Amino acid sequence: MRNAEKIQHLGKVPLFMGLNRKQLGEVAKHADEVEVEAATQLTQEGAISRQFGIVLTGSAVVRRSNRKLADLGPGDFFGEMALLLQQASSATVMTTEDSTLLVMHARDFASLLDSVPAITRKLATGLAARLLEADRKLVV
């Protein structure tokens, strides 16, 4: 995928909406496009993860203790908590169909957060929303 195409895809990802073209270029510079087949394990619960991923096409499922937590589709992302906390993954993520991902390794992810602070704010908002949703599920 050419850089211009990558920037166009990134601009449609909710995490990156509102970023200008230069900021999207920074994201694109740090992200690698990866094609994966259905049933590919992207992260493993309890294992050290060194990547952040964004689903461009296809889908994946998130499981913890073999319990389904969420379905991921285009625009959804995974792996940020393990990288931010520098801890093992809290869940297993596996593709449910052939998928295209943008992947950033830990060092690139950290560099991106330093160079584009707007992403840090959006990540915080996304994490807060996930926490609120998890809390609601516990109360019900």
Brief descriptors of the model:
140 residues, 28% strand, single chain, 4-stranded antiparallel β-sheet, globular, Jelly Rolls, alpha+beta
List the topology elements.
Layout (H helix, E strand, L loop, with lengths): L2 H8 L10 H10 L1 E5 L4 E3 L7 E7 L2 E5 L2 E6 L4 E2 L1 H6 L6 E4 L3 E7 H10 L1 H23 L1
Antiparallel strand pairs: 1-8, 2-7, 3-6, 3-8, 4-5, 4-7
Helix pairs in contact: 1-2, 4-5
Can you put this structure into words, describing what you see?
This protein is α+β, with helices and mostly antiparallel strands and 140 residues long. The chain has a single domain (3-118), classed as Jelly Rolls (Sandwich), CATH 2.60.120. It contains five helices and eight strands; from the N terminus they run ααββββββαββαα. The chain has helices at residues 3-10, 21-30, 80-85, 106-115, 117-139, and strands at residues 32-36, 41-43, 51-57, 60-64, 67-72, 77-78, 92-95, 99-105. Strands 1-8-3-6 form a four-stranded antiparallel beta sheet. A four-stranded antiparallel beta sheet has the order 2-7-4-5, with no helix packed on it. A hairpin with a 2-residue loop joins β4 and β5 (67-72). α4 (106-115) crosses α5 (117-139). The longest helix has 23 residues, at 117-139. It is globular. The relative contact order is 0.20. The mean pLDDT is 87.
What can be said about the biggest beta sheet? Answer: 4 strands, antiparallel
Oligomer: single chain
* Low-pLDDT regions: none
Helicity, in percent?
Answer: 40-55%
The number of distinct structural domains comes to: 1
Share of β-strand residues: 25-35%
> How widely separated are the two ends?
44 Å
Characterize the overall form.
globular
Query: Helical element count?
Result: 5
Radius of gyration: 15 Å
Q: Going across the major beta sheet, what is the strand order?
A: 1-8-3-6
Q: What is the level 1 CATH name?
A: Mainly Beta
CATH topology: Jelly Rolls
CATH architecture: Sandwich
| Extended strand count | 8
CATH superfamily caption: Jelly Rolls
SSE run: HHEEEEEEHEEHH
Mean pLDDT: 87
